[in-house]
Design goal:
Rossmann fold, 7 strands, about 45% helix
Amino acid sequence: MELHGKLALVTGGSDGIGREIALQIQGAGADVIVTGRSADKLRAMEGLGFGTIISDLSTPAGVDALVNGVAGKPIALLVNNAGVGSEYELDRPETLDSAAHCIRTNLDAPIALCTRLLPVLRAQPEAAIVNVTSGLAIAPRAAGSVYCATKAGLRSYTQAIRHQLKGSNVRVIEALPPVVATNMTAGRTGKKMSAHDCAAEIVRGIRTGKSEVNAGMVKILQLVHSISPALARRIMIRF
């Protein structure tokens, strides 16, 4: 996809992977609108030349605010990047609210945005949807059951709509990051990919027309899974 001159919308674009994607798309000549929940972070993005929309995508009102905010704008690239973790624990019913929040943000909102923004994407000469899932969409870890479920659900949805839009002007891309150094993973130890490097692989995939971008160590996980899905699950369940 040629990014120069396109208008892109990046959800969760004021921090982490989303911010880096937005910066690199902008660097390729695109105009970029970013969304987020922090007014301070969005003001900082405005200072860098980005359009901004404040919205909490865990709520229907937040999705409405975003869709209304881009009404009439020729969006050609939709990057569904916004995501949250979950404090859900199976033996603690009080954490179901956290699970619901995660599901609404990570799965419900991207589905709603793909559906409601498809008409404007179809109206462009060239367009793309990028759904950011996770290596955990391939094989889950026990400690993140709801988060993994949302990413696996978004992966399945992405594959299905890619088939539905086959032959159209709208390319559907799935981006699968590994563990990336962001605020969400601040409490985790071990090797992490930088947000800049992860975004660079995703943006390269957008520009070269890939349907699936396996970033960093996800390439190895995908290879293991292609040989033995059961082995991939055994490795990742305690990850």
